[in-house]
Amino acid sequence: MRSYSTLWSAVLATGLVAAGCRPKPETTTASPTATTTAPAATSRRTSPPPAVAPAQAPIDLLPERTGVVVSAASVRHLLRVVDVGALIGTYRPYYEQAGAYLEQTFGHNLLDPARWPEIGIDPERPIGVALLDAGSASSCYFISLTDPSRFRAFLDRVGAKLGGSLESVYEDRGIVLAHESGVRNQLVLRDDFAFLVLVGNPKLAPYDFARELASVDPARGLTASPRWQQAMGRGAGRDVVAFIDVGGMVRGEIDAARRFADQVAPSWAEQELQRLREQGAAAEEIARWEQVAAEERASQKQRRESRRRELELWGAVFGQVGPIALELSLAPEAITGTARAQMPETALLRRVVTAGAGPPVAITAASERVLFGTGGKLDLSEGSAGLDSLLRAVGKSMDELFVELQAKLGGDPRGALEMLDGTVSFALTAKDMDAMARGGGKEELGFNLALGFKDPVMAAALVGVTMAKIPSSPLGLAGLKVKRGKSRGHVVTVPAWRDVHVALIGSTLTISTDPKFAQQVEHGPARVWEPRLAALAPVVTAPGAAATLLLDHTLLLGMFMVRRHYEGGRYKPSQNQPYWRFPSLAHEALDKVPQSAAYKARLKEWQRLDAKIERAEKAQERRRSELALAAADSLGAMAISLHETPDGLMTEGGQYFGPGGLARTIERVVEGFSTVGTDYSVHEERGRVEQELQEIRVRDIERALGVRAGE
């Protein structure tokens, strides 16, 4: 059976055709080029450019300054994570309908990559996307071609059908196609590849990206640059590779902000002031608008300064981080791989993380299902110094933070922080996922928190003092009560939620809504952690990890699909008094008219129908929730561990699917959206009864108040 990819086909069909084959715009957009490596003329060269070796992959032609690249080896590699045959079989009518529409519109079924060679596209070679410049929001999508001339002919046919056309606006080693020179969206054909270039803000674009793609020498492109080769190395090719220059993008944002500051246009107030001056307005009016313009200039300056400080903060965190190299392998069971980033030992992130924390006990000692968990070991002195520098970038400091904490919590927060050894883990847990699907409230959610202390004696003293102060502390939480636990520690009663259990196990402070958590931590070394998906265990418990992250997709998919249960009262017809039928009467007068026997009798019928609808709605909601949780089980979880390397940091792990994998997840999500089965005849009947109630109510008011409706 032929394979297909709806996602990539949609990108190709929508991006290439919609952006490239629409009617010409009525106005001409100025070229975004400030400086360019290619000649500025839009006509063809009088002499051919020097010959260079053809690119082996689309990424070889990307500019050296490119910030982000995600490239898949082929569509076939992307399809490794999904059972395409099963999906086509399940949704064949929809697939065939969509394929027929594309066949009619474009002359080819673009949902089937096996037919892409008919229009010159190669489904067996690289495909991907790149962020060319963060400051101007410029990006490009790229595909590989089997026959560029056939692909060009396809574009011409589609363009003719849609009433537009593409012209060659620049030719070098490649061809730039567009409606006219300087438009935002352009198509580049170069060697055996096609690039759809999208420029978000032409005014901030540092150069003409399309022309650079058409003229760049692969020996001077991104993959030939030292920063690419140092980041990516010579690792074996994976199904998906990504290059993410976080530090470079931050620096690019700073440069773009500076360029934008240099291009500040007159504000609306200054434009109005200029208009009044030209018209000879009165001196009082001019003076008033001079004040408005001055205030607007000050506001703009403040916003620019705030943006500058924000960028400086990001620069302090990521400025020394080298490009991130991501390599992934795709399979029906998991998407796994590594992400490496070079950074000096002086970088803030590297100074803060510390190896050797051990498995995060908030996750591994949990007796409830972990929806989200993280843990690691931090160098608190370095972290405090780094946080202080970041706070100072926005006009604050750690000293001010400690003062605020002391005012709210009491005690000595700085001293308490100095008692910690930096080991911390946290988990958001669920007591009963099925109960949540049935409409369980917030009491189903809980948490585990574990903090490591340097000295257990000092930790015990701190816990005792804190527990004594909680009932009277200015936390803004009324009703907090503290009592001693049956076996150890303390129990904090939180109104309208679960009890929180606090205990000290050796030098580890445990705080949890689970009364079993402290005991699990105590028995942790002799206890084997068995997660819901066995593949998660080696990642979460990886030796020597500096930090760990676990995300069960039940948390995200459940929040997205499971509707919030409505806790308020349902609508009642009596809430809808016919005020508009009696415009001359006060609403209070209508409200005081008692319900007649006829109204009450008909109201019982309305209530019977409404109760029937409510039962059906609750059943549908439960079914959707169950399907959402089932989809989350198939989608599985993500687990990542962070390790320090000689030249930076590295993460290992990935996305691990549950039973049925991604294909079953898709089926369950679609099933959840399509599981409606609403009997709208009952709604219609209830609507008719409600209309009758309105008419009965009008007659009751007329008789009781001696008026006629409409008067």
Automatic annotation (TrEMBL):
This is Uncharacterized protein. It comes from the Bacteria. Residues 27-46 have a biased composition (Low complexity). Residues 21-53 are annotated as: Disordered.
